[in-house]
Specification:
Blueprint (H helix, E strand, L loop, with lengths): L21 H4 L8 H14 L2 H6 L10 H8 L4 E12 L6 E11 L3 E13 L2 E9 L27
Antiparallel strand pairs: 1-2, 2-3, 3-4
Length: about 160
C-alpha cells in the first residue's frame, strides 16, 4: 500500500492527498474556493471523516440526525470517482458558489450522484448549503468505464 504522503487524493485533482485535501480535513487550513470545499467533502466521504462533513455543512441546513445518517451509510459505500463538470462563482472573492459534479460509488451495485451543489461563504469559510439532484450521466460506449477497471464502458458496465 502506498503511504498517505505520496498517494493520489481521492478528489481526482491528481495531487497527492497530503498537498490537496488532507490539510482541509485535518483543520490546518480552510478550503479557499467552493470547488475546493466540494472536493474535500468528497474526500471526507472516502475517508469516513464524519466530523468534517458535519462541520462544513451550513448550520442552517444541518439535520438533527446527520451524524447517525452518515455513520450508517459510510460503511456500505465505496466511492470510486469524482468528476467536476462545472463551477459558477465560488472563488476566494465570492460569497456564493455552485459546483456541478458526478460522484460515482459502489453500494449494492454501481451508482452515481449527479448534483448542482450550492455553497455559501460565511466569516471567510465556505459551507455546503444544499444541491439539486440531476439525472444520471452514462459514459459513451468507447469512453473509459467510470468504475476504474481500465476497460471501455461498453466492455464493462455498458453491457445490456
Amino acid at each position: 500500500m502506498t503511504s498517505t504522503m505520496t498517494s493520489d487524493c481521492p478528489c481526482g485533482s491528481r495531487l497527492s492527498y497530503a498537498t490537496c485535501c488532507q490539510p482541509y480535513l485535518s483543520g490546518t487550513t480552510i478550503a479557499p474556493t467552493a470547488e475546493a470545499l466540494m472536493r474535500s467533502r468528497y474526500t471526507a466521504y472516502c475517508k469516513g471523516n464524519i466530523d468534517y462533513l458535519v462541520n462544513t455543512h451550513h448550520a442552517s441546513k444541518r439535520t438533527a440526525n446527520i451524524r447517525v445518517a452518515l455513520s450508517k451509510s459510510m460503511p456500505q459505500t465505496t466511492w470510486l470517482k469524482l468528476t467536476v463538470l462545472d463551477t459558477e462563482q465560488g472563488q476566494p472573492e465570492d460569497n456564493t458558489g455552485i459546483v456541478e459534479f458526478i460522484a460515482r460509488y459502489e453500494a449494492e451495485g454501481y451508482g452515481q450522484i449527479h448534483e448542482r451543489s450550492r455553497f455559501k461563504k460565511q466569516k471567510g469559510r465556505w459551507f455546503y448549503l444544499d444541491g439539486d439532484h440531476l439525472p444520471p450521466v452514462e459514459p459513451k460506449r468507447n469512453d473509459p468505464c467510470w468504475c476504474g477497471s481500465g476497460k471501455k464502458f461498453k466492455q464493462c458496465h455498458g453491457k445490456s
